[in-house]
Amino acid sequence: MRDTNEMRDKLIHEFVEKYMEKLFYFCLRKTDSRAEAEDLTQDIALNIITALEKGTVPTAFSAWVWKIAHNRYSAWADDKHRRAASVTGSDVYDCEIIDDNPGTLDEMIHNEQMALLRRELAFIKSIYRDIVVAYYIDDRSIRDIAASMSLSESAVEQRLFRARKILKEGMDMAREFGKMSYRPENLRFQINGLPGSNGEPSCYLSKALDKNILLAAYRTPSTAEELAIEIGVALPYMEEELDSLVSATLLIKRNNRYETNFYIFSASAQEKIYSRYREIAPLLTEKLIEICKTKNDWLDKNSPDWRFGNQPKEDMRWADIMSTLDDINRRAVSEANKSIKCDCAANIGSWGHTIRPNNGEWDVIGFEDCKDAPDGISLRGCVDSPDDRNLKEILFRHYTFLVLGQQYYNQTLSYREGENLLKIADGKTEETEKSIVDSLVKKGFLLQTDGKPVPTFCVMRKEKADSLPEDVLMRIRELKDAAIRQIIPLYRFAIECISAEAPSFISNKEYLVRAAASGILWERDFIAKAAMKNGYLKIPQEESRIKMLGATLTI
Q1: pLDDT, tens digit, for every residue of 492-516?
Q2: Which domains can be identified in the chain, with CATH numbers?
């Protein structure tokens, strides 16, 4: 008997301490009247305490409390409708009692469904999540929560009410996460321009989470909650990542939805464009080879000191044909855009790319995985751009080749290293920094010959390289014009492919469309492979020569 009385007293105490306040706010929401809420709360409390005093010992106390509360509210509502009907003549069954009470959530919590609650808490906004955790898990009062969050009690109640509905819907459904939750997709990127001081955008484009956020928000502008469910990542972690991507300008938040702020080529669009590129590659390569031979043969014969360094002529061809292709692509895009009024809403900096946070000037294009994708040949200059963009530009180029399935990575070159290379190329070795020279030797950019550092790659004197006679220049112009006529239709075809499938928020930005169309023209791999098949390009056997294949410095 003593044990029974102790249990009864314990349950009554627990009810008064933990549930009376919650019951009052429940009744206040239902009745919208403080006086009626107080009466209904007392009625519910009387029923619960009477049952406990009679010896009732529920197995799930919270669920039992809220069941009684719900039943007493239903009885109260029925009685109220009945009284109204006697006055107005209305039928009680014309009115529907909506089940939005907090008891449903409490039942789920205490019926061994805490795992479901935790799952759903991972996918609701922090303004709701923090209050639910405080109220249900930490067992804090409305008043305490309001004070700690600098909110009014009514604001807390409203958010808690909204959170219950969201959680109830989620807990009742068999939630299906998106494919990205178990099968993340990959993206490759083409980045043009100067990085920000924190390494943007590359620092955001290497992680699988960021790639899949950008891909999901590109296919369908989505809320944070929708992205969290699609990718299968809890919202607290997703929110932080989204904020970072918005700050980096890779995402735009519009009307609570996130949109990817650049174009992503689908696999199907890539296949169409690559097919066209493969068709023109053999003839285009022939023109590029003739351009390079026409120029270099004349210079070697008539101005032998136009270039110097330790690089064989055969190796120099790799950078030469790529830079010639790049020049023709730029001219083709410019020519094709002449008749088009392209409103560039983007803020373009002095280096030709969009101004970004942290002193960055860059643009990016995404590519879905595609089985027919080329291996890719990238281009770098001095990777550490100076803070003062007015400093002397260092005309250093270094292509990275993926040839025959083997990656040949170029070494990075800092701005200070570039400055020292210029001094060496100008014959001002005495003005160089020893530590920098040692670093360049170690990286393979310099070779010590007779006690003097000599570049292991092609260094060209621009004044001499440009000293071609008119007949040679005319032939080169003819060949370049013919190549441009081949590329312009490919550029226009790329625009068609983009316009056909791009989401509206991309299609409406002409600059992004044309930047993407021009970007896919830099698939230099087709030309490199065609030139190897032709025999014009050959892979050296020595590893040291391979590293410097695509490097050039222009003075």
Answers
A1: 999 898 888 888 888 777 778 888 8
A2: 2-104 (1.10.1740), 113-172 (1.10.10.10), 179-261 (1.10.10.10), 267-413+463-554 (no CATH)
